[in-house]
Amino acid sequence: MVDLHTQYLRIKPEIDAAMQKIFDTTSFIQGAEVKEFSQNLAKYLDCKYVIPCANGTDALQIALMALELKPGDEVITTPFTFVATVEVIALLGLKPVFVEVNPHTFTLDENELERAITPKTKAIIPVQLFGQAANMEAICEIAAKYDIPVIEDNAQAIGADFTFKNGKKQKVGTIGHIGCTSFFPSKNLGCYGDGGAITTNDAALAKKMQIICNHGSETRYYHESIGINSRLDSLQAAVLNVKLPLLDSYNRARQAAAEHYDNALKNNPFIALPARTDYSTHVFHQYTLLVSERRDELVKYLTEKQIPTGVYYPVPLHLQKAYSYYGFKAGDFPVSESLSQHCISLPIHTELTAEQQDYICQSILEFYS
User: Fold this and answer.
1) DSSP state, residue 105
2) Half-sphere exposure (CA, 13 Å, Cβ side) for 93?
3) pLDDT tens for each residue of 325-365
4) Which of 71, 78, 183, 336 can bridge 316 by disulfide, Cβ–Cβ 3.0-4.6 Å?
5) 290-331 pLDDT tens trace
6) What pTM value is reported for the model?
């Protein structure tokens, strides 16, 4: 699904030099590279504050902790996402409240949002899924009406642009009160281990989240709040400093690959191509098709032809055993349940060749012929 080795070879001298510098200085934790990356990412996103952390899951947990929610408070998100989005809600003793997703974009359906809001709703987490944003303008307008903070789960859409109705553009992940992202190696901006970051334009929230990341401490051995140990290490920051200037070109390569897929598959009646919107660019962390029938057979067929695929996500979160405690049942979110049965993601990455894509597309069309 990704070719990290070939990508590394293209930037090997820069990566090796950056990592060797850390080996020479032995500043493995909180080295200068971490501060440099924080500043570089803030400049790229046009965001006031970036707090690096250990991974995207921690980013979400820290964001919720900074809001000082109480056990039983409700947090709205979607059932069609990676488990981390809901995992942190449950870990903090909060109650997940699901809102259905749009059947075309797979992101939180803003038309279903307001009816899920109650006096206990204390946060909304839209997920910027597969590389494009939910309708953040509409979501933030609804959230503002009820004075509810918005946390963007931006683990899959870094670099995407959101366009408001007035023509203003803003980087996805900087629109809500807090943005959370992941630098897992397969991400559009990936490091060579685990890594994450939290973004905000709110000075008070930024300070609070920085303290939470460091065991709840601003001054060593003096702890102002309950915190966790969540740091981006210097080696990962060094990798990200090399790769960040390449992010836009990486995203353009993914977009070109998506267009190649589109052109090859657009006329097949069994296939629905990834939807685009007027308000968000799509940076294609995943290229995800909807197939009307025989999805699992297609996966098996492609596997036999040595073509990797991904099924994101085979069981929506409201039907996962881990969250049965909340009393959800089959039929509660039919769009998400249908997507789980019909989605298939194809390889998409910066090193994908036209020949590889032609082979993949030809194989899919043969299957549905």
Assistant:
1) T
2) 6
3) 999 999 999 999 999 999 999 999 999 999 999 999 999 99
4) 336
5) 999 999 999 999 999 999 999 999 999 999 999 999 999 999
6) 0.97
Alpha-carbon span 60 to 196, nearest angstrom:
10
- Degrees (nearest 5) of the Cα angle 304, 306, 311? 85
For the chain, how far is it from start to end, CA to CA, in angstroms? 25
**pLDDT of amino acid 159:** 98
- Tokens describing residue 60: 């979400």
Report residue 33 as tokens.
């590279």
DSSP string of 298-365, one letter each residue: HHHHHHHTT---B-S-SS-GGGSGGGGGG---TTSSHHHHHHHHHEEEE---TT--HHHHHHHHHHHH
Would you state the structure tokens that stand for residue 344, as one six-digit string? Answer: 């298939």
Q: Is the dihedral of CA 106, 335, 136, 38 positive or negative?
A: negative
| DSSP string for residues in 239-299 | HHHHHGGGHHHHHHHHHHHHHHHHHHHTT-TTEEPPP--SSB----SSEEEEESS-HHHHH
Which tokens sit at 238? 């060094």
Sole residue written with tokens 């902790």: 65
